């Protein structure tokens, strides 16, 4: 699907950074907000995009599950969400989400910057390129190294510890997993479990957008020992845990966003170079 090359009325906004809010994180700005209904070839995004300021920097915010949490993970319109942010000029995304811990070294309330993911979802629209030009992007290193470094530096200066490495397992949902499933995944070496972030990360890479997953551990996804809590069984537990650590997320974003710079210095925006079976074809929105 190609964007048209006509003047985009939203371009004047100029938000370079987009924040996607997950469970428990439905808004970012307190005041001076513009709200945009963005049309996409893939239908409506989960929510209108709000544009405001973070430390003097214009930022776009989109609620992954909708402002009333009306879209469960398996029916979120990920294609429309990423496309809408790209349409507004966003070239880097920080995706915030709640995750469950599969390993003992990840504790409730801690923040994690994943460096790898394993996808176990099915049936989700996870590409913009269905032909006729065959396109194979690389996601061997799926998360933007530059933004990860900036967030890690911000956490160090704020004395907010961040895990710098973790493999995130994305499951279909909407149900929570069984104890047997969690033990199986833990034994496989996966660190965290979530129902979102995929296909967001792959779709962002297809559009040349830098993307990182900023994950907050809200629950134990598995029984870790005799003295540990049972696995999560209530969505309200997840939301409640997220709210208790919400301020740390805001502090990190406030510190990191002004340092993101323009344009990105990483290779994420060159994701289509060499990815096409037909050389020389460039989508209109990159011209």
In short:
The chain has 287 residues and is an alpha/beta fold. Helices cover 22% and strands 21% of the residues.
Describe this protein's structure.
This protein is of the alpha/beta class and 287 residues long. It has a single domain, classed as 3-Layer(aba) Sandwich (Rossmann fold). Helix content is 22%, strand content 21%. The chain contains 6 helices and 11 strands. The protein has helices at 78-87, 145-158, 179-188, 200-206, 235-244, 246-256; strands at 17-21, 34-36, 49-54, 57-63, 92-101, 111-113, 116-120, 162-163, 167-171, 192-194, 210-220. Strands 1, 2, 3, 4, 5, 6, 7, 8, 9, 10 and 11 form an 11-stranded mixed sheet that branches. β9, α3 and β10 (192-194) form a beta-alpha-beta unit. α2 packs across α6 (246-256). It is globular, with a radius of gyration of 18 Å. It starts with 16 loop residues before the first strand and ends in a 31-residue tail after the last helix. 43% of the residues are buried.
List the helices and strands and how they pair.
Blueprint: E1 17-21, E2 34-36, E3 49-54, E4 57-63, H1 78-87, E5 92-101, E6 111-113, E7 116-120, H2 145-158, E8 162-163, E9 167-171, H3 179-188, E10 192-194, H4 200-206, E11 210-220, H5 235-244, H6 246-256
Helix pairs in contact: 2-6
Number of domains: 1
* Overall spatial form: globular
- Helix segment count? 6
Number of strands: 11
| CATH class value | Alpha Beta
**Structural class by secondary-structure content:** alpha/beta
N- to C-terminal separation?
15 Å
> What is the H-and-E element order?
EEEEHEEEHEEHEHEHH
Q: Please tell me how large the radius of gyration is.
A: 18 Å
CATH topology: Rossmann fold
Multimer state: single chain
Strand content: 15-25%
């Amino acid at each position: 699907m190609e964007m048209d090359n006509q003047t985009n009325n939203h371009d004047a906004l100029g938000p370079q950074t987009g924040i996607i809010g997950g469970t428990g994180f439905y808004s970012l700005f307190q005041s001076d907000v513009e709200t945009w209904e963005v049309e996409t070839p893939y239908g409506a995004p989960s929510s209108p995009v709000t544009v405001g300021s973070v430390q003097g920097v214009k930022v776009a915010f989109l609620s992954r599950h909708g402002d009333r949490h009306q879209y469960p993970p398996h029916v979120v319109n990920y294609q429309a969400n990423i496309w809408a942010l790209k349409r507004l000029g966003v070239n880097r995304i920080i995706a915030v989400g709640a995750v469950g811990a599969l390993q003992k070294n990840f504790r409730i309330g801690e923040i994690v910057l994943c460096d790898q993911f394993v996808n176990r979802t099915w049936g989700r629209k996870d590409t913009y390129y269905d032909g006729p030009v065959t396109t194979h992007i690389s996601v061997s290193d799926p998360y933007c190294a530059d933004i990860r470094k900036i967030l890690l530096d911000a956490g160090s200066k704020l004395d907010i510890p961040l895990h710098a490495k973790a493999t995130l397992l994305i499951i279909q949902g909407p149900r929570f997993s069984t104890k047997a499933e969690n033990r199986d995944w833990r034994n496989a070496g996966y660190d965290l479990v979530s129902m979102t972030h995929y296909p967001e990360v792959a779709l962002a890479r297809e559009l040349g957008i830098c993307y990182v997953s900023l994950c907050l551990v809200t629950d134990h996804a598995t029984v870790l020992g005799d003295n540990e809590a049972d696995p999560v069984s209530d969505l309200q537990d997840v939301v409640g845990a997220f709210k208790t650590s919400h301020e740390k997320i805001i502090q990190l974003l406030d510190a990191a966003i002004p340092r993101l710079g323009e344009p990105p210095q990483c290779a994420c925006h060159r994701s289509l170079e060499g990815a096409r079976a037909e050389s020389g074809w460039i989508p209109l929105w990159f011209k």
